[in-house]
Amino acid sequence: MSHRKFPAAGWAALACALAILLGGIAALAGAEQEGRVLRNASTKITPDWRLLEPARYENISLFPVVARAAGSTDDFVTLDAALASGDAIVTERGTEMIRRSRDGRPSSPPTYNPSTMPLPRPVPQGASVNELVLVYRGKKPLVLLAGEVVTGGKQDRVISKDRIVPPGADPIPLDVFCVERGRWSAGAQFTASKFMAHPSVRERAAVDQEQGKVWDAVRSGTTSSTVAASEPVAAPRMSRDAVAGTIQNEARSESYAKIYGSTRVGRSLETFVAEAQRRWARAAGAAKEPVIGVVVAYNGEVAWADVFASASLFEAYWPKLLRSYATEALARPTTKEIASLDDALDFLRPAAGREVVESEPGVYRWRQVTEGRYAEIALEALAPRQVVLHWVKIQRTS
């Protein structure tokens, strides 16, 4: 058997290729020291996000998501801001006549005065657990996020789906789920609660779309049944018994706001939130780029991500988002497992599975992709410009 001698030119080419490869590895190592980079050019979410080292406290890890360039969402308004200004009114379906003042702003006075108001406009009759009516007369598109809680009316409700309401829209039906099982009485109008339902409830409302599962998640604190590889080192600080005791003594109607704002649950929650925020401020403060979102892990499991189009929009939601993540953390045990930066980076990669798209032409597009245990939802504004305002990814507990 003869052997051919490898030519000198071939050795030189191989050495050159090896040098290039080693140089590339060195460059990647340098980039790793600066932070992990996620390139997601296959979707319209963003071409380039970066993750920072997390803020950790007890069983929660909060990974800041930063963007290469600062976006602007000043031409949009949140539900909390619109309700506070009076530009938005949320009311029970069929229980009130929606009236307009001379400047076009909605109001609900006890009597109708024809000298100061146009004729009242009726909404469809018949109050419904899973549908409210929204009247909006603001000058900017209104952003609604699944998981936002509104209180009042006949029952507290949680918004079930992200959407955008354009300026000048007619009264629209608003899909919701009840988060107050034991009451169906009193007023018709709602106020912002400053609550975002915690992940287990948000998942049941936004993905499962089942009222019974929403109620179960409100009562249980968490629907996660993940068992870590190591033995728990600390039991949940907010057990199902604690929630049940709160319902028995302070929130007999099973109101979400009353349960998670109660003295029994709320005291532990406020302490947890304060410390988590202190550590988050230190982690996010290290960012040179705008912080636009967060990836959330409990123990070693990456469970959730909320990412926005701008730092200002993220900051508007951050206080109630943090409170929601903390509520979930208190209901889960603390183990020795922790999620790594690579775990969080892998979680952000786009899902590829069954896709559902809904849209209102010229206003917004809503897209949901489900792949195994993962669900990914994007809310894209189409006017006054095209931009993905909110992107959420969930590792489902069901």
Overall description:
This protein is α+β, with helices and mostly antiparallel strands and 398 residues long. The chain has one domain. The chain is 30% helix and 28% strand. The chain is built from 9 helices and 21 strands. Strands 1, 2, 3, 4, 16, 17, 18, 19, 20 and 21 form a 10-stranded antiparallel sheet that branches. Strands 6-9-14-12-11-15 form a 6-stranded antiparallel sheet. Helix 3 packs antiparallel against helix 4 and helix 7 crosses helix 8. The N terminus is likely disordered.
Blueprint (SSEs and pairs):
Elements (H helix, E strand, L loop, with lengths): L7 H27 L1 E4 L8 E4 L3 E3 L2 E8 L9 E2 H7 L2 E5 L6 E2 L5 E2 L23 E6 L5 E3 L3 E5 L4 E3 L3 E3 L6 E7 L11 E7 L2 H10 L2 H10 L19 H10 L6 H5 L2 H23 L5 E8 L2 E8 L2 H21 L9 H8 L5 E7 L3 E8 L2 E8 L5 E9 L3
Parallel strand pairs: 5-10
Antiparallel strand pairs: 1-2, 2-4, 3-4, 4-16, 6-9, 7-8, 9-14, 10-13, 11-12, 11-15, 12-14, 16-17, 17-21, 18-19, 19-20, 20-21
Gross morphology is globular
Helix content: 25-40%
Strand content: 25-35%
Give the H and E element order.
Answer: HEEEEEHEEEEEEEEEEHHHHHEEHHEEEE
Using the CA coordinates, give the radius of gyration.
25 Å
Number of continuous helical runs: 9
Q: In terms of per-residue confidence, which ranges show pLDDT below 50 for 5 or more consecutive residues?
A: 1-6, 9-45, 96-126
> How many DSSP E strands?
21
- Major sheet size, sense and barrel closure: 10 strands, antiparallel
The chain-level structural class is: alpha+beta
Overall structural domain count: 1
Measure the end-to-end span. 63 Å
Mean pLDDT: 78
